[in-house]
Amino acid sequence: MKLLWFHLMPYTDLPSDFVERHPSVWVDIDPALFDATKAHAMYNDFMDELEAAAELGFDGICVNEHHQNGYGLMPSPNLIASSLARRTRDAAICVMGNSLALYNPPTRVAEEFAMLDCISGGRLIAGFPVGTPMDTCYAYGMNPSQLRDRYYEAHDLILRAWTADEPFPWNGRYQKLRYVNPWPRPVQQPHPPVWIPGGGSVETWQWCAERDYVYTYLSYFGYKAGQATMSGFWNEMDRLGKDRNPFRAGFLQFVGVAESRQEAMDLYREPAEYFYNRCLHVDARYAQPPGYASEKTIRARVESQVARAAREASAPSSASRPSFEDIVEQGYVVVGSPDEVAERLREVAVDLNVGQLMLLLQYGNMSKDLTLYNTELFAKRVKPQLAGLFEDEWENQWWPTPIAGDARAQPRALSS
Amino acid sequence: MSGSVSLADGPCQVLSAGSGPPLGLLADVGGWAVLPEFAQLLADSRQVVAPALPGQVGGGDFRGLDDLPDWLAATLDRIEAADLVGADFVGFGIGGLLLAELAALSPASVGRLVLVAPFGLYDAGEPTADPFAARLSEQPALWSARPDDYAAALACPDGEDPVEWQVTHLRGQEAAARLLWPLGDLGLAKRLRRIQTEVLLVWGDDDRIVPPSYAKRFADAIAGPVSVRSLPGAGHRVDFDQPRALAEAIQAFLG
């Protein structure tokens, strides 16, 4: 199986009374809370951590895109990926990804991803998310009723731009371009592997199956909550006649490794509570722009709400600010000794049938020292226990195919 | 009574009542499932006719509409199909916006206009509220000066399918968002100078979505004769909050 080290790049200095004093970590987060000098240190720490993960042997390193967000400091993941492409050698560069409808014209994504693929020597994984409501509709003003159609059109345009053998005009519903001819073009042919981060919509599963893309479920709520979604995904693959190749699927899991479970509980309590309380403090007014979800999804959601309301009328859910014990109990974060974590992640991978496992080993306000401790323990004592899983039985055709090592450029070493 | 007209993309609900000179009604976000009280009051002297706009209850498809010209063409389709070309009109919110655009760009299509808290302008110094970024619990007081009654009116009636009820409600919201997102400013300010017809602007004193001061912004920009009527005890949904006072204001204006 593949193990990818994922960074959200959270701002690590939100005040302790953030939840009480501020309505949201996203969209209208208080600009006064941002200290650019501290951010200078954060960005450099985060990039050090990603580079260290690559050096320690993680199969891939992942960055993603958020806007006006206190737990995601990467409005442009491509900027970070560009630096990583130079400062790492073998790890896949997984940009998870560019919210296609926000790029005007979307050929910008074709161009920048091609640049990253060229700079990295063919190590790019191209993530194509729709983007959250907060990022797309509120921060970037995208019309929620047009977002998905714009996304699909942008996808079609980018794929054609990567694969066409001559310049072509594009007379789309939303994009009109007389001369499409991205230059540079990707190393990987016909194009870098495409991974689609999604929620639990059947339409997305079908779309991934139709195009043979990897579907990744990037939930912050761990393997227990993810079970239903991944089960739905595989049932739909069965229905569509697709094989159960686990490399079709990616899944995100928070992890904290230490020498013992108790040490892990002690070390990861603060960063986990910081993340699940302060970082997920998102104003509900930004969650449901009308039109963001399809009517089919709304029907499914409303039906489940009606059923749930009927079931739970006397026991409404509370836990909006979970303690670390809740967080661990619910499976949001897997903690323990290396052996315990390896055993649990093997179960997660097998139960969810996920071959591309993305790991959050930095979260919340976790320090660089602790992040590197977590990362190193994982790389040296967890990863070897998971090596080879699924690989005898299944081929991972969704992994980058870089230029051979001896033909790859060697970036100039930094002088002191 | 409820009927429908045939459009190129399917049927469209038309609510109507009364007899006399026709008076077209274009609703705000979501539309009307039945003819509202103010319209029933007007039906004593006018034939009130309310074709549904795209995405409103019974209004047909809206996801094929990409820009303002598409919306204006769809509105003209409905006006023509309901035999309302040249009639006097009352437009609420998005209905008011579309009627103002038609009065500027296709003046023969509409007669005198009553615009009730129309969308279409945005002043950063006194911004309109974002009706698409409100918590569910905030919605009633945002739209209405009678929030408890408004919330009750939005609740799924006994005997209706709660899923379909909610989908219909959200569809109306999406259609409005498709037209208005993100600010509701589609350039109408540049075109108001072309409106020559007689206009009555009606605003609820307690409109929390489009500030009542916007009445003056509209009035100053419209070329033709304009009068303004503010109604106490009404929020943005003047038709819901003060139906009798609204009907009287319309009657007084139209004569």
Question: How would you characterize this protein structure?
Answer:
Chain A has helices at residues 18-21, 36-55, 77-87, 107-120, 133-139, 147-163, 202-211, 222-239, 261-279, 295-311, 324-329, 338-352, 368-386; strands at residues 2-6, 60-63, 92-95, 124-127, 168-171, 176-180, 194-198, 214-217, 249-257, 333-336, 356-360. Chain A has 416 residues and is of the alpha/beta class. In chain A, the strands form two sheets. In chain A, strands 1-2-3-4-7-8-9-11 form an eight-stranded parallel barrel, surrounded by eight helices. By secondary structure, chain B is an alpha/beta fold. Chain B has one domain (2-254): Alpha/Beta hydrolase fold, catalytic domain (Rossmann fold, 3-Layer(aba) Sandwich), CATH 3.40.50. Helices cover 35% and strands 18% of the residues of chain B. Chain B has nine helices and eight strands. Chain B has helices at 37-42, 68-81, 94-105, 139-143, 147-154, 162-180, 214-221, 238-241, 243-254, and strands at 2-7, 10-17, 22-26, 47-51, 88-92, 113-116, 199-204, 226-231. In chain B, strands 1-2-4-3-5-6-7-8 form an eight-stranded mixed sheet, sandwiched between helices. The longest helix of chain B has 19 residues, at 162-180. The radius of gyration of chain B is 17 Å and the shape is globular. The model of chain B has no long low-confidence stretch (mean pLDDT 97). At the A-B interface, helix 10 of A face helix 6 of B.
